[in-house]
Amino acid sequence: MSNELGTLIKNARDLKGFTLIDVSKKSGISIAQLSRIETGKRGAPKPDTLKKISLALDISFNELMIMAGHINEDDNEPLKRIDHFNLNSDLDEKIKHVAAMLTDEKGLFFSYLQEDAIEIFKNIQINEESTAFFEIYERGVNEFKDDPLTLNEITEGSFNLVCNFEVLSEIILEKLSYEEKEILLKELTSIAKKHELYKEDENDIKDLEEFLNQPEISFNGKPISQELKQRILGYAEALTDQDK
Q1: pLDDT at 206 over 60
Q2: For residue range 26-65, what is the model confidence (pLDDT) as tens digits?
Q3: Which stretches within 58-204 are classed as H helix?
Q4: Is residue 92 located within the same domain as residue 180?
Q5: Cβ neighbours of residue 97 under 8 Å, at least 6 residues apart?
Q6: What is the pLDDT of residue 121?
Q7: Distance between first and last Cα of the chain
Q8: What's the domain count of the chain?
Q9: Domain-located, residue 124
Q10: Which string of DSSP letters, residue by residue, matches 186-214?
Q11: b/e map of 192-226 (b: 16 or more CB within 10 Å)?
Q12: Alpha-carbon distances, residue 198 vs 29, 90, 201, 203, 211 (angstroms)
């Protein structure tokens, strides 16, 4: 692969007057990895990495995906593929956002949430270690059914090893389908609200005009033009005026 991708990213960074440190802070990608991408010393970055770079530098995610070889320019439905990735990526971030409310600074679920968390994760095929743990845990439930505190103390260490924020982010989300992720988000949110840990994402966009002003908005796989955005806002304004 030529280094057109790295050159594009570096030019965009220079145009904004950003250093590698600036982009690293904005994207959460290490300086070393950014440098390797710009100099072409590594293979094509993953789509989630390109998404972070596109947001940090305000450049086209579509173009980055094409230049990295993830999307073929001759593909008849590239936008639909990108939309699918965006939906998955956004859902992953929402799950991580809620999971962070349920875990401590080490990424471990709060001990008083263990029983709730186990109910969610015991049916997910994570790895051999987790399967063995949940089998042992089920036997423990019967043995210590009258002493749940002891069961919690005995199993807490093992649970923290097989199910934590890192495992959730790096393994579980890679295994689940979009529909399964939706269920997981709903269940984690339910736990957070049950224990009064849930906080609204301050970055959620609730204003229609702000939402439409985001780059690369599409509908049914087709990009929404600036003209269409203005028409949508016009219709919305007319309808809200009727309700007054």
Answers
A1: no
A2: 888 889 999 999 999 878 898 888 988 988 898 888 888 8
A3: 61-67, 78-101, 114-121, 128-143, 148-162, 165-167, 173-175, 178-194
A4: yes
A5: 201
A6: 86
A7: 58
A8: 3
A9: yes
A10: HHHHHHHHHTT-----TT----HHHHHTS
A11: beeeeeeeeeeeeeeeeeeebeeeeeeeeeeeeee
A12: 27, 18, 9, 15, 24
User: CA–CA separation, 86 vs 206, rounded Å?
Assistant: 19
pLDDT at position 37: 93
Residue from 237, 221, 192 nearest 71 by CA: 221
Which pLDDT score is estimated for 152? 72
Q: What is the CATH number of the domain that holds 13?
A: 1.10.260.40
Contact 61, 51 (CB under 8 A): yes
Which DSSP category does 237 fall into?
H
Instruction: Note the pLDDT tens digit of each residue in 115-144.
Output: 898 888 888 888 888 888 888 888 877 777
46-50, 152-156, 213-217: which is most confident: 46-50
Q: Domain span at residue 237?
A: 205-243
Task: State the average pLDDT for the chain.
Answer: 81
